[in-house]
Amino acid sequence: MELEEEDQESKRIFQKPNGFEESEGNFQEPKKADNDNEDDNVNDNDLKKENIKKKYGENGNVKFTDEEYEKVKTYFPKDYAERIQALDDYIQSKGKKYKDFFATLKTWARKDGYKPPSVSEPKKEQYKEIDTSQLSQEDYGRLMRRQTTIEKLIEEGKLNV
Fold it and tell me: Per-residue pLDDT for 123 more than 80?
């Protein structure tokens, strides 16, 4: 009998109050699950698709939101893909990290003497079809050898658009 009483005394029974967990004999509030967002003000549904950055370049080192990517295309309308690839290659080879990829591209462009297209400056018209039948063989030959341009021939009155 004495043995049974000692065994019962040596065994401790911890009764857990509702909503609490036992940790080394102490009661603590339970930890919230990672997906429990009751108290969080940020909801996953509130995140906008525009804020998600997508990877660009062969190696995927350059990241833009859709809005940033459109800005890059507007700022570098003719060669944005080549510039993004050059930055991607540089990051891959050097292991550099950048906070703002668009700012980096603009800085590199300024160092190269690049002038962004002006919003107020109208785009030059592109000639879709030009009738060269009215040109002399000599003028046509100069045009084909790139000794003159269509614009010059129009100015000279040798071509009508």
Answer: no
Residue that the structure tokens 């909503």 belong to: 19
Nearest to 58 by CA among 80, 82, 81, 88: 88
| Residue 20 pLDDT exceeds 90 | no
Residue 109: pLDDT above 60?
A: yes
DSSP letter for 114, please: -
Measured CA to CA, the distance from residue 97 to residue 99 in angstroms comes to 7
Mean pLDDT, the chain, integer: 76
CA separation, residue 58 to residues 73, 85, 116, 144 (Å): 18, 7, 25, 37
The answer to whether the CB of 76 falls within 8 A of the CB of 88 is: no
Q: State how far the alpha carbon of 12 is from the alpha carbons of 45, 70, 72, in Å.
A: 47, 67, 68
Concatenate the DSSP letters of all residues of 7-46 into one string. Answer: HHHHS--PPPPTT-EEETTEEEPPPPPTT--SS-S--GGG
